[in-house]
Structures are given as C-alpha cells and as structure tokens.
Description:
By secondary structure, this protein is α+β, with helices and mostly antiparallel strands. It contains 22 helices and 16 strands. The protein folds into three domains: 7-163, Roll (Ubiquitin-like (UB roll)), CATH 3.10.20; 172-226 and 233-561, Glutamine synthetase/guanido kinase, catalytic domain (Creatine Kinase, Chain A, domain 2), CATH 3.30.590.10; 576-702, Four Helix Bundle (Hemerythrin (Met), subunit A). The chain is globular. The chain starts with 6 loop residues before the first helix and ends with a helix. Magnesium ion (MG) is lined by residues 201, 328, 457.
Amino acid sequence: xxxxxxxxxxxxxxxxxxxxxxxxxxxxxxxxxxxxxxxxxxxxxxxxxxxxxxxxxxxxxxxxxxxxxxxxxxxxxxxxxxxxxxxxxxxxxxxxxxxxxxxxxxxxxxxxxxxxxxxxxxxxxxxxxxxxxxxxxxxxxxxxxxxxxxxxxxxxxxxxxxxxxxxxxxxxxxxxxxxxxxxxxxxxxxxxxxxxxxxxxxxxxxxxxxxxxxxxxxxxxxxxxxxxxxxxxxxxxxxxxxxxxxxxxxxxxxxxxxxxxxxxxxxxxxxxxxxxxxxxxxxxxxxxxxxxxxxxxxxxxxxxxxxxxxxxxxxxxxxxxxxxxxxxxxxxxxxxxxxxxxxxxxxxxxxxxxxxxxxxxxxxxxxxxxxxxxxxxxxxxxxxxxxxxxxxxxxxxxxxxxxxxxxxxxxxxxxxxxxxxxxxxxxxxxxxxxxxxxxxxxxxxxxxxxxxxxxxxxxxxxxxxxxxxxxxxxxxxxxxxxxxxxxxxxxxxxxxxxxxxxxxxxxxxxxxxxxxxxxxxxxxxxxxxxxxxxxxxxxxxxxxxxxxxxxxxxxxxxxxxxxxxxxxxxxxxxxxxxxxxxxxxxxxxxxxxxxxxxxxxxxxxxxxxxxxxxxxxxxxxxxxxxxxxxxxxxxxxxxxxxxxxxxxxxxxxxxxxxxxxxxxxxxxxxxxxxxxxxxxxxxxxxxxxxxxxxxxxxxxxxxx
Length: 704
Ligand code: ADP
Ligand code: MG
C-alpha cells in the first residue's frame, strides 16, 4: 500500500474527471461533452470516438488492461463484466489496443439472469448498458489488475429500466424542469439547470475476519441469526465518537486513500453508537454521482476490510439488542448559478421563494409518505425502523422551532411577520471560550425527514441499500408539487397573491405531516394515526404503494416508471423477501442441527460423565446434574422448534402466489426462527464456552 501525505495529489488520480477531459480533448470536443453532460442530448459518433480513445489512453497509461460497463441492477449491488482492451492481432501477430466510441457508449449483455420481475421472458435476453456521461469513469486497482469502470444505466431491449440508475436520471430531469420553472418565476432567469444534491452518511460494522468465517449466518445472510447478548452492550455510550483503535484506524486510512483516488470525497469518520460500529460521510454531490459513489464506498469498505483481516458488515441489523446501521440521505436542490433552493437565509419568514419551496416539499411528503417509506424499505431495515434507534416507519417532517413558528404564523394569519432564534449565542458560562453564534434550531435525531439548515435529511434508508430509490422518490414527488404550483402561478395575473395562496393552502392542508416531538415515543404512533398518517410497519406492507392509482399517475406523468416497470419492481421485492427469508431459515436450521445440537450433545455427555464419576467417588455433583437437566430440556425444545420450522417451510415454499408467499414467510417463518433462537440463546448462556461451537456476541463485538 503506497503511503500518502498530500490529498491534493492523490484526489481524483484514478478518475477520468471533466478536468482530465478538458486537458486531453480538443476544445470543441470537450465543449460538446460538457454540453451533453449538462443539458442532455447525444454525442456525435466522431466525438464519442475521440473521447473513448482519450479515456483508453489515460486508462492504459495508468495500468488498465480491461474496461467494464459498471451498472446497478435491481439486486441492489453493482454488476460488471470485464473486457480486455485487446483486439484481433494483425498478420504479424501484433496486437493494437482499441476502444471505440460505440464501445464506450453502449454495451450489450445477456440480461436474462438479472432480476426483471417478469418484464422480460428469459428468451428475450438482451439488455443494454448506456454510458452515464455525468458520472466520471474510474480505475479500480485490485488483485484483478486495473480495470476502467464506466458508470452506465441498464435497460431492456425495449428500453424498460432494469436498474436503479435509469429512473434516478429520469427523476433528475423531472426535478430540473419543474424547479427551473419555479426559480424563473421568481426572477432567476440566469439559471439553466437545477440539480438535486445528495450526501449519504454510511454506517457499518467491522469485525474480525477469522471470527466472521466461523459464523455461517454472517457469511450467508449478513446478520447473526442467533447469539445471546454480551455482558456489555452500548449502554455506556462510550463508543460513540470514541477514540478510534489502531486496527480500525489503519482500515479507515486505507479506505480514505482508495476513495480519494477515485474521486470520492470521503470527509468524515467516527465511531458510532454500537460497539464495533463506525460511520463514513462524503461531501455531497449530484444525486446520481452520489449514488454511484455510495456504491463505491460500500464496495471499497468491504474490500479494504479483507486486507486488514476484518469483515465489513453492511446489513441493517447484524446484531440483536444493539443499534443497527442506516444511511442518512441528505438532499437539497441548487441552481447552476449558485442558489440553494433550501437555504432559508437569515429571515425565512421574508424569503417567499424558500417558503414556497418548503410548502411544496411538505405537500409532497404528506401526499406520498407511503412511497417515501417504501423507498427506504428492504428486508434488513424491518429490524431497524421503529426500533428505538431509527425513525419509526411513519413518515413525518421535522422543521425545528424557527420554521415551525413561521409555518404556524402562515397557517393561522396568512402571513409570517416574525422570525425567532436568528441571533442566539452559545452561553457556556466560561469567559475564555469563544462567543459562538448557534444554529436557529436544535437537532432532532428521531425524525425520519428532518430539515437541517439548508437541506433535508432522510434518515430511514437502510445501510446496505442503494440510495437510488429514495432519491427517485424525493425528486419525483417534489417535481410534482413544483409543477402544480408553477401551473397555478403561471396562469395567474397576480404573482404575489398566487404564491401567497399556494403557500397558505399547502401548509394548511399538509401541516399534519409536521412533527417536532420525539418520534420514538409510543404516543407518536397513536397521534400519527389520529392525524391520518400512513403507518406501514414492514417492508411488505409498503410494496403495493408502488402501484396505487396515485403512484402510477405520478410516475407516468413525469416519465419515471411505466406501469409495467412498477409492476415488475413489485414482483422483485416480493421475490427478494421470500428468497432472503428462505436463506435465513435454511441457514438457521443448518447451524442448529449441525453445530449447536451436536455441541450440546457432547456437553451433556461430559456433564453426565462428570456426574456419574462423582457418584462413583461418593460425591453428588449437583451442579452437573442441574445443568444437564436444563441443557437437555432446552435442547429438546430447540429440536422441536426446528422440526416445526421445517414443516412450515415446506408448506410456505409451495405457495404459488408471489405476494402471498412473501407474507407467509413474514408471518410464519420469522416467528419460528425467533422461537428457535430463543432456545438457542438460552442454551448459550449456560453452556461451557469451550463447547459453544461459534463465536459469541462478545467475541464478535469486542475482539476487533
Ligand atoms: P450532520 O448530519 O452530522 O450534521 P453534516 O452537516 O456534515 O452532518 O452533513 C452530513 C452530510 O450532508 C454530508 O455528506 C454533507 O456533505 C451533506 N450536506 C451538507 N450540505 C448539503 C446540502 N446542501 N445538500 C445535500 N447534502 C448536504
Ligand atoms: Mg446526519
């Protein structure tokens, strides 16, 4: 591993940035590329060839042997197929490396083994990858060599989206168009583009790799299916922001270097709440680039962990009883001439454009809370949302004191004349400490969708999930309310009145989604029900929100998804759920039957021998007998619960209907697994550590 001292030199070294293109390409070619990147359209064949050649020259100079169209199928991870830059040798057997514009822009692959949710029959196998010119290609260096990775979108032969990126790019177009209408109405005629910016804070666990390899549940499912809590958990709050241990620090250093090289702005790192849990946050960037980069972050963390004989767990809930991991999706909108639409300024009550934008966002979130919730759901996140560490599954908006007060004034009086908390100073009571101006509002860690100064932070997203889906939803639902507002304002002959009416109307109608209290409190669930807010507690409850009439209308209006694409995504979600639960159940069954029960049989044998030997020697070893009886009883219950699990599994697997099968897994299999886990965890508590066949929570969480 090379060392580094100067981030400036390292940063972006392995990314084919616009800066590099500018240096390497003729001026007119570069301008064409920049224009297409900014405003869409197609590169001419000639330009594409020149860009491809420059990209190849640069890549080869830096050691690349292969290129790949790098894409994000609906598995939620990334996919790649490498092609060497090799071409047919000439008659002397000499090979000349080539890379054409066509190869850069378009890839064709057999898509039949990627999830399509019935969009294609298996015989309709063609899938196409198309270059996303706005996201820089990068070089990945690892044991495979150096690979040029070209970010692409992935579609079927008929142009249906088979990935996470295509709809995201579509949604970015929609929000751009609609937000531009708004800023232009407010006189910003210089703006040519509005971009959604995203910063994704990533949580993860690191555990020792040797221990990991002894836990098949972690290997197959990413989480522990059994394990009794360690003597110490997170109750001391001593891990959060704690001093970073050497082994972890060395990992972080390597991760940063790898990320900086490919142009990912890894910025913040710290220990998180749970033992062995950490966080990495980059600086925000354009939504699609941020989405690509978050995938790179996750991949890099996994890869670098191995080098340090560690394993990085990205599952939302690897360990029962301590916090799981999520992702905070920070989102804002800004124009190409430097205006952040979510910046309230010092006196938000006077910032009419901001108030309109805010009202539109609140309306969007209230109208489509179900879709937002859906976008943050995956199998693992069901263990997290609503479990005292993450926001509940009920979507609400936190505005903070200052904006809440402005909204109240607007709803009650139709105008907001005052603004609180603008000029507060931190009072430490120590004269030598600096006099700090503080933020107008405090934080609220419990809210799923919180306004944090000049952005919204969507906190429900799962740690392993792509941030593609949540940003598709955010962009699209806000585009819809911008569109409605712009339609009304454009038609009106009194701008001020129209804007004023819309703000008042939207805020009054959708105020119910604003909640500034403690979202973890059980009373909130009741209060939310009274307010009529949807509560979709699990992933499966949220799947059908994709194809309600309201959703189809929304997605079709802005060209994000067709009805067929939505139907297909639903099928994939149901399938994924069943498959995941099936793997988990198989895995649990296997560990219990092949590791736990055999170990307990040996242990019982030892206890019985001990007891008998004692008796022979004239001493009754009562403790051996007591433990033996307990172990035996739990072991019998454990065997019975596994037998019941097997019966249920057999039945559930035969259910033909995709949705019904998924619900059966949720309602029947999960419970059975919990029951088995209960007995196994009880056994762990009373079994000699030398006999327990797998590493304990204590080993996994504290021995890194
Ligand atoms: P915290 O949430 O802990 O207050 P930060 O304020 O540093 O942390 O921001 C967290 C993430 O939000 C970072 O990735 C940061 O780059 C991103 N972020 C900051 N400002 C914006 C913005 N205007 N739009 C989108 N993301 C932003
Ligand atoms: Mg945050």
